[in-house]
Structures are given as C-alpha cells and as structure tokens.
Design brief:
mainly alpha, 20 helices, 0% strand, single chain
Length: 506
C-alpha cells in the first residue's frame, strides 16, 4: 500500500510539473527558449510535446520571423536608371572627357591626312604679304594714323559746346559730319588705293568702326552731362584717366565733374580702353599685375601663330578644293566641302574668340588698369539665339543697349521693332567690314545677320533647353562656313578667273 501511494504521488507530481511548464510556455518565453536551445534532459521532451499544443498563429509568426530577410540582407529598392531624366543624375564628366578624347583623335586623323596629302604649308612670311604688298607703302597703317584727326575734331566740338560757343543744334551737325566722314573716308581710301590688301583694309575698317562707336558714345554722354549741368545736378564723376582737384574719400579717389573731363588725355584713355561706352568715372584696378600681363601676352602670341598655321594648313586647301564644285553647282560635293570646312572654321572662330575677348582685351585692360573685365558671358549655354547675341560680345551689346535700343524705346518704338533695328545695324557693319575690303558688294553677311531674326523666333518658340542650345551651336558651326564659301567663291571668280582669262591674276 505504501509503495502504491508513493507511485501515485510521483505521477501527480509529474503531471503538475507538466502543467506548470505548459503555462510558462504560453505566458512566458523562458521555458520555451530553454527547450529550443536544448537545456535540460527531460525538459526537452516535455517542452517539445507542449509546443505542439500552442495555437497555430504563434507557429506562423515564428516561421515569418525566421524566413523573411532583414533590411541588411535586401539588395533591391525603388530607383530609376541613371540615364533617365527622372533619376536626377547630372554628373556626366566622364562622357564629356570621352567627347574630348574622340574630338582630339578624329582631328588628329584629319591633321595627319592633311600633312600626307599637302605637306607642310605653314609660311609665316606669307602672312606679312596679306597686310602689305610693298614694305615702303603701307596704306592701312597710314589710314589708322589719320584717324587721330577725327578724335581731335570730336574733342574740339565738345569743348566749344561746353563753353556755349556752339549751340546744341550746331554741335549735333558738326558731330554728325565728323561721324559720317569717320565711316565714309576709309571706304574711299580702301576702294581707290590699289596697294591696299583685303586683310589690311579689313583691319583699318575695324579700327574706324570701333572709333565711330566710341565717338558716338562720347558725344551722347557729354550731352547728358550738359543736361544734368543745366539742371544743377553735378554729381556725375569722371574717369580717373585724368587728374582732378576734387577728391571724394580718404583713399585718394579723385573725381571731376563736367566739363573737367574734356581733356586730350581723358579722351585717348577712352579710345584705347577695352570698351565702347564712355563714362566719366571708369572702374580702375589698384595695380598692374605683371604675371597676369605676361600670361595674356604669351596667349596672344601663341594663339596668333596657331590661327595662322591652322588657316594655311587646314582652311586654305579645303577652300581651294571647293571652287570647282561651286562653279559646277555640284550639290552633293558642295555639301561635302561645306561639312569639311565647318570643323576647321568653327575651331578657328573659337580660338579667335579666346584670343580677342579674353587674352587681348584683358591685356589692354590690365595695362590701362581698366577694372571692368566683363567682355563676355556664358554664351556657350545659350538656349536662344537672342541670348547668344546678348552675351558673346558684351562691349557691343552694352553700346547697342545704351545708345541705340533704349533711345528707340523712349521714342515710342516697340520692342520687336527695336530689336529688328539693332540686327539691321549689326548686319550693316558686318557687310561693311567684309564687302569693302574685298572690293565687291555682296549681301551674304547682311543676309546672314538678318536671317537671325526668323531663326531667333523659331528657336525661342519651338525649342527649349538642350534642343535650343543645340540649335544655337548648329547655327554657329554651319552658318559661318556658308558665308565664307560664298565670299571666297565670288572673290575668286571676280579677281582670279576673270584675271586668268585676261592673261593672269591681278
């Protein structure tokens, strides 16, 4: 009996222990965790048996927690391809470098092909003959020297106006005659003097064109000063190119009111300054930086030689080979020659832009301590034709805006008509600088400039962003070679083909 009672008590203790473990498994995690981790001998069996009695939801949650990967193990997320516009990716530096490498390699092949076909054509001595035929007869240089007469005439007129010897009407008449002769006199000399070369004539006419624009600005600004002077508003200062007894500030910043600016030194400072717009107070740099000056001088010399070499070695052979297709009106060959000419012509234009607007104008500005160095803006990012013409040549743009466009608007002219007038004036001067030195009247430069109006309207209306920028580049790369071929063909027909029929070229 005693043995039977002990056996019954042992069984009851075992059952009660199993119930306890089951409660711990349901309400807590310690016993289950221990059973899963394999702690204890008999406890493993009890725990395993009791886990099977747990609800099915707990079993599913455990499977989910075991088999679903964590964030660290995930390798995919919501994202766009890099070349898609929605990705926001903008770092294409490697693509740009690839384009530069391909451009260099392709042009290197063309350069080698040119050398193998034509040999070395570079001859610096030949460049001198483009400016002068006879070293003892230099009409272009003499023409530039004579331009001082018109400078002195403008100063004399302004001095007479400042003291009241000339009325405003008489002063306007004298200035108009002086400016008209400034444009017409060099034309007569270039056309009449047979020893004047096309390059020499173009250089002389370029000097007279710049002088015309400067003297026009000089006339306008002094007129505004007289109007302010009559209104007792003597606050407009003058250029630091001439000394003054009036000082404003402790730093020695001298300023002179009108008519203290009417000196020969002040006017000649403006004539040589890299600007077309006259002011009585130009911004001045504190000192001349010799290292900057020497760098610009080196660039000027280097790029001058590079322009000459590329023109003789690359441009001239293509132009010479284009004459026969133009005469035969062979359209496929004409297109092929045009595309061949587009690359060297555009490269020369880019080099000329850097040589003139960056190296040369900065050299002059540094030498004269002229402070305003904004000669160009980011025209290469132009998305419209209008933006390009407003930003690639800042001195001309400022002159047109200040002395031509705004006065037209004040007189009641609409903006569209004013812009058309600016393009018309620009077309005139382009033709003036090309047709007169070549001694033949052809409308190609004029038509090319006026064609910018409908092109500007089309690009601004139908093209945006990169498409507009591509249209601007195409107009620059293709438009200029067309004008070059037309002028060269007409010049060849007029001076060489007809001359050879009469016994030889002129």
């Amino acid at each position: 009996m005693e043995e039977t009672g002990a056996l019954i008590r042992k069984r009851r203790a075992t059952i009660s222990t199993g119930k306890c473990v089951t409660l711990k498994q349901v309400n807590g995690r310690s016993a289950v965790d221990e059973s899963i981790n394999g702690h204890g001998g008999s406890g493993n069996m009890v725990t395993t048996r009791n886990v099977s009695d747990l609800p099915s939801t707990t079993s599913k949650e455990r499977k989910k927690r075991v088999y679903v990967p964590s964030d660290r193990q995930s390798c995919h997320r919501l994202q766009e391809s890099l070349l898609s516009s929605a990705s926001g990716y903008r770092n294409y530096r490697g693509v740009l470098n690839w384009c530069v490498v391909m451009l260099v390699l392709s042009n290197a092949r063309l350069f080698l092909e040119n050398l193998l076909k034509y040999g070395i054509l570079v001859d610096p001595i030949q460049v001198v003959s483009l400016f002068i035929k006879d070293p003892y007869n230099m009409p272009a240089a003499c023409l530039v020297i004579v331009s001082n007469v018109f400078i002195v005439a403008a100063l004399y007129t302004e001095r007479r106006l400042s003291v009241g010897c000339f009325s405003e009407r008489v002063g306007l008449l004298v200035h108009s005659i002086n400016l008209s002769v400034t444009l017409c006199f060099p034309v007569a000399i270039v056309l009449m003097v047979k020893s004047m070369t096309p390059v020499g004539g173009a250089s002389a006419l370029g000097v007279y064109t710049v002088l015309f624009l400067k003297l026009y600005s000089y006339k306008d600004v002094n007129k505004w000063c007289r109007e302010m002077s009559h209104a007792k508003a003597r606050s407009l200062a003058r250029s630091l190119s001439c000394k003054s007894s009036v000082s404003t500030g402790s730093g020695g910043d001298y300023q002179v009111s009108y008519p203290g600016n009417l000196t020969l030194r002040d006017l000649y400072y403006f004539v040589f300054a890299p600007t077309l717009c006259y002011e009585l107070n130009f911004p001045r740099s504190p000192r001349i930086r010799m290292s900057f000056l020497l760098r610009r001088l080196f660039e000027m010399l280097f790029f001058t030689q590079l322009l000459v070499a590329l023109t003789q070695q690359w441009m001239i052979p293509i132009i010479q080979s284009s004459m026969k297709p133009l005469e035969d009106m062979d359209l496929p060959m004409m297109m092929e020659r045009l595309l061949r000419l587009a690359v060297p012509n555009h490269l020369l234009w880019l080099i000329f832009f850097y040589w003139f607007f960056h190296s040369s104008l900065n050299f002059i500005a540094e030498l004269l301590q002229f402070g305003d160095r904004e000669f160009y803006r980011d025209w290469w990012n132009s998305e419209t034709i209008t933006y390009f013409w407003q930003n690639w040549n800042i001195p001309v743009h400022k002159w047109c805006l200040r002395h031509f466009y705004k006065p037209l608007l004040k007189s009641g002219v609409s903006k569209w008509l004013g812009q058309s007038a600016v393009f018309l004036a620009s077309a005139f001067f382009h033709e003036y600088l090309v047709s007169v030195p070549l001694k033949m009247l052809r409308p190609w430069a004029f038509m090319g400039m006026m064609a910018q109006l409908p092109l500007a309207w089309f690009v601004a209306r139908f093209l945006r962003g990169n498409y507009g920028n591509a249209a601007v580049w195409i107009s620059l790369i293709i438009g200029q070679p067309i004008a070059v071929l037309m002028y060269v063909h007409d010049y060849y027909v007029l001076h060489y083909r007809e001359g050879s029929a009469g016994g030889g070229p002129e």
